[in-house]
Amino acid sequence: MKRRPGTLYGIGVGPGEPEWLTLQGHRLIRSAPVLAYPVNARGESVALRIVKPWIPSADQEHIGMFFPMTRNPDERDRYREEAVLRLLPLLEQGKDVAFITEGDPLFYSTFGHIQKGIRRFNPHIPVEAVPGVSSVHGTAARLTLPLAEGKQRLAVIPATEEWERMEQILLTHDTVIVLKVARLLDGMINLLTRLDLAADACVVSHVSAPGEKIHRDVTSLKGMALPYFSLMIVKKREKEGESPWLNPLSGASSI
């Protein structure tokens, strides 16, 4: 009798706060025989740190996987395929694998590449996703800021040096979230200043995680090096002179 393959679960664990994990994610993380997670070059895992309070103490195999932050597509593909080939035999042996990732597993996440690879090698392996709190929604929660209401337009984009495109997006949307903004921070500040939008912007690093910082005066950040996990929210004021950042930031370390 042919063995039933295990299921690959992509589980979003949120941006940092362990209690933002969903009940389904909590159950699967505790019950899966294999827990896989991304690690950095030092072998550290943000995702694993987030769920550490919930993982069982024994009888669970842990697999850390390194995905380098490189612009070389061939190198990225090589590491992704290596990760897929480590998980594939376990799944074919009938073991369920919980692959945890920061934020949401289907929103700018490594899991998207892993599931494509698994399905390419063996389309019979079941794949499921468990949503998590993205950094976008986590930041909105920390700021108690409605991202969009009524007919307002919302854009979520990674930081890019396509400045004309960035300008067009800023001019045509009510709320713009710029992900991974640290690398292009000075350029974004220059653009916002030219468009008279600097006062409508806020930068958040490590939202809900240790070391969280909320910067409401983005012009003061010029020339500074921010953490990789930093994003910018530009929320246009609805009335002249009304700042979107007037709400007290309860429990947040703001600057």
TrEMBL record:
User: What Pfam families does its record include?
Assistant: TP_methylase
What would you give as a GO molecular function for this chain, any one? precorrin-2 C20-methyltransferase activity
* Keyword annotations of the record: Cobalamin biosynthesis, Methyltransferase, S-adenosyl-L-methionine, Transferase
Q: GO biological process annotations for this chain's record? A: cobalamin biosynthetic process; methylation
Query: Which pathway or pathways does this protein act in?
Result: Cofactor biosynthesis; adenosylcobalamin biosynthesis
- Tell me which residues make up the Tetrapyrrole methylase domain: 7-217
Annotated family? Belongs to the precorrin methyltransferase family.
Q: What is this protein called?
A: Precorrin-2/cobalt-factor-2 C20-methyltransferase
Which organism is the protein's source?
A: Melghirimyces profundicolus
